[in-house]
Amino acid sequence: xxxxxxxxxxxxxxxxxxxxxxxxxxxxxxxxxxxxxxxxxxxxxxxxxxxxxxxxxxxxxxxxxxxxxxxxxxxxxxxxxxxxxxxxxxxxxxxxxxxxxxxxxxxxxxxxxxxxxxxxxxxxxxxxxxxxxxxxxxxxxxxxxxxxxxxxxxxxxxxxxxxxxxxxxxxxxxxxxxxxxxxxxxxxxxxxxxxxxxxxxxxxxxxxxxxxxxxxxxxxxxxxxxxxxxxxxxxxxxxxxxxxxxxxxxxxxxxxxxxxxxxxxxxxxxxxxxxxxxxxxxxxxxxxxxxxxxxxxxxxxxxxxxxxxxxxxxxxxxxxxxxxxxxx
Length: 328
Ligand code: GTR
Known about the structure:
By secondary structure, the protein is of the alpha/beta class. The protein is about 50% helix and about 20% strand. The longest helix has about 35 residues, at about 250-285. Bound molecules: beta-D-galactopyranuronic acid.
């Protein structure tokens, strides 16, 4: 009798599964966080990856994007991603610096000679190693996205040399590397979440910040910090990560699909990025901002020695710096 009941139970389970279909039983919704608003290239790229996943699985895997800080500022969303409460997160490498030492290396000031150099490094073996280094910290690195070059802007005066930055209050991301970079240049670093910067610039709590063209424009920081000096100190890329806890719940086949979708979103992002750089630049220039594009970078580079010593302090990290510099 017991045996029969057991059999009956198994059979009814099969009937239920057949009626609901395998799709309903295994539907996977991946929540994705981004600090940027809808329409920003990073947001569109992750949505593109989501569309691919949905198409490939007949809607079984869905990405639900929460853009514009709906899930919090980057520091919080990173914690939540590690904890498994958010599945996908698109952040800059900088707020990961304190958690994953390897991420500080591509965020080091002036480490890349050009965007092409950065692409070659991050698209190759070194980039793959940095993505892999995230796993032991609870994140699966999926893809790097472009972030152009970060440069200084402020409401006080044009910056032509580090001397002009002396005593200036400059907002930085939640990264000791960025704090140390500002201090090495003589400025006062003020770590602050991205969403608070506009108000802080407007009210004079800070004098300036640093970012790429699209972020300078999309946040309207350009309206309250008129001087933009293209010193291009950081080419620190964006990264798409997945929670390791969420990753481990996926089948090996689904993990491959997620990796593939992320990889295919990279060229789409680059195209959107290049277009956005152009349109942001045009908007800022039309606003009459003072853009200094011929600054002598050497004095800025020279000031970075203590920063390299501190953040590439181990032999392994120093070797990574050399390998990046050696990429032609
Ligand atoms: C942007 C980047 C964001 C965030 C922001 C910031 O360029 O895309 O992820 O790092 O800068 O300065 O906080």
